[in-house]
Design goal:
CATH class: Alpha Beta
Strand content: 15-25%
Strand order of the largest sheet: 3-2-1-4-5-6
Helix content: 25-40%
CATH superfamily: Vaccinia Virus protein VP39
CATH topology: Rossmann fold
Shape: globular
Number of helices: 7
Distance between the termini: 33 Å
Radius of gyration: 17 Å
Order of helices and strands: HEHEHEHEHEHHE
Number of strands: 6
CATH architecture: 3-Layer(aba) Sandwich
């Protein structure tokens, strides 16, 4: 679950931040799972689970492979696989309620173990960096990082995914010219992204946009931000 956004420049100093920990995320469970959600995780998730030992298994027939870091409730992931059936998506989320939310959108009640599933989707329920490290070099066409937990306190800056030590990981997996989409409504994280990007050489310089481009699918976090008057920023970064 995302922390409440903060204003100001707390947490800046990207180039001086500590190394990322072994685990970036916090808790993996929210409220108690309902029986249907338990079935989805036990019966549906294994049918779509991404395998780091064979990262492109079953995906060689697609024109491209995209990667989403933290899909939240799954609305963006679902929009992507629907709008782009020619592209496979590896979607990562550690939060059990979020995993169940996406899975529940894919199969009807009673079809957890047998209903057809989209061939262009794989789901990874652990740290996205593990899956990224498993990807062959230059194998991804696009990476999404949309409204991540901003970890607003300075002592937690090392947990932010946009981090000097994570940029090479994303860049290695992206093909030349591939796109990394980043969006956040948190002022501290916005300033942080700007500082980190200004000191790197993997992606071409890009000015953040204040309006979501028409080909970007919306998310619930964006809707919440807009509803209370916050202005998200959107980066479209190209791998050099």
């Amino acid at each position: 679950m995302r922390s409440a956004p903060r204003s100001g420049a707390e947490g800046l100093g990207a180039l001086r931040v500590k190394k990322p920990p072994e685990r970036l995320y916090g808790r993996q469970h929210g409220h108690a799972l309902r029986p249907r959600q338990v079935r989805l995780l036990a019966e549906t998730l294994p049918r779509l689970r991404f395998d780091p030992a064979a990262p492109l298994a079953g995906l060689d027939g697609f024109e491209a492979v995209a990667f989403e870091i933290g899909f939240g409730g799954g609305e963006h992931a679902l929009a992507e696989i629907t709008a782009h059936p020619e592209t496979a998506l590896i979607a990562c989320e550690v939060y059990a309620n979020g995993l169940a939310s996406l899975l529940g959108r894919l199969v009807p009640e009673g079809g957890e173990a047998s209903a057809p599933l989209p061939a262009n989707l794989r789901i990874w329920g652990d740290d996205a960096r593990i899956a990224l490290r498993a990807m062959p070099a230059a194998s991804l066409s696009r990476v999404f990082l949309l409204f991540p937990d901003p970890w607003p306190k300075a002592r937690h800056a090392k947990r932010r995914f946009v981090h000097p030590e994570n940029l090479p990981l994303v860049a290695r997996a992206l093909r030349p010219g591939g796109e990394w989409r980043i969006a956040t409504d948190d002022p501290t994280y916005q300033a942080w992204v700007g500082e980190v990007l200004a000191a790197q050489r993997f992606f071409a310089p890009a000015t953040p946009m204040t309006t979501r481009p028409p080909d970007w699918a919306p998310t619930r976090y964006e809707a919440k931000a807009l509803a209370v008057g916050r202005t998200p920023l959107y980066w479209s970064l190209r791998r050099v």
